[in-house]
Amino acid sequence: MVKKSRRVIFAVLASTALVSAGLTGSAGADEKNPVPSGSAAGPYVDAEAQLAEVRAAQLHSEGRWAGSADPGKKGLQRETREDLYPKFTDKELADRVAEDQKRRANAPAPDPDAGEVMATELVAEGLRVDIYTPPPGMSPEHLADILRKQGKKGVEVVRHGKAAAMPMAPGDCAYGSARTFTCPVAFWTNNGFEDPLVRFNDHTPAQWPVTNAVYKWHQTPNIDSAYRFNSCPFQAGARCVDVVSANYGPVWTGRWSGFFPTATQSGPYRENGQVIQLNDYYTPAGWTRNNTVTHEMGHALGLGHNVYSNDVMYFQANMREDIGGENPALLASIYSVYR
Ligand SMILES: [Zn+2]
User: Fold this and answer.
1) How far is the CA of 243 from the centre of ligand 1 (A)?
2) Tens of pLDDT along 9-61?
3) Which of 7, 207, 230, 239 stands 20 to 30 A from 169 (CA)?
4) Three-class SS state of 100
């Protein structure tokens, strides 16, 4: 059943703007580790062990997790007021898209060496996919090497060029510079709601602006993002994505981890098992915590990497914090179908 009018998607690559204006300066940058944040980072935590713990806790209580120590009083922040972050109207969305297009036209071309690092492994729950955001200055190859040495399976670097060549049919796999993971797409099902409901269960301290990021994405039409603080009680049809942070050492700034039901990485997401991990190791330099939180959350909703180098969904952490217009427009398209 198609419940909402499908948006007309102009799957036009702004490729001329992307390739015509020269390179960003970061190609071939030294792979030096940014300065760790010292005492704020806390003791080193094994990211895989933490992930296993979080998932075990999710399974233990129907996928809900409230097991961590209370990291603060974030539940009282202004950003938890959903009514202050209404959905974009068609006009607001169109204005934002136009802004994005203008920005791209004036921007330098993306770093041709930029790439994502992805690890895929077929496990009992489905196809597990981890996507890593490298810190500025670290090449995807270097990050991939670290991950392989750590014993991570199915590690590969996916180049910008490959993403840019993603097939455009059936129309809701790309919008401007925004991309889905795969085509056909992976998506959250409605489960009886008019819009699918994704609840982000925040276990991080105040330095990570999870509240703010949740409601930025909530403004996207056709998909609802809700904020929960350290507890995600059962709600029929809704799901929880845990958001945690720790000192994971000098690897990535953020990591999204989830399960696809099939090896083709398309179709409905598995209801449980998506987790976002945010690294306390790094002090922001050339990126912001808001950028990283917002970016990983975009993955959780179904977005792949944006091909525009100054977008919040670009491969590498950067200074961009707003969700732009093309990312929401692409999500609005994906979720214009009731399924
Ligand atoms: Zn990413």
Assistant:
1) 15
2) 333 323 322 222 222 222 222 333 344 444 467 899 999 999 999 888 887 76
3) 239
4) helix
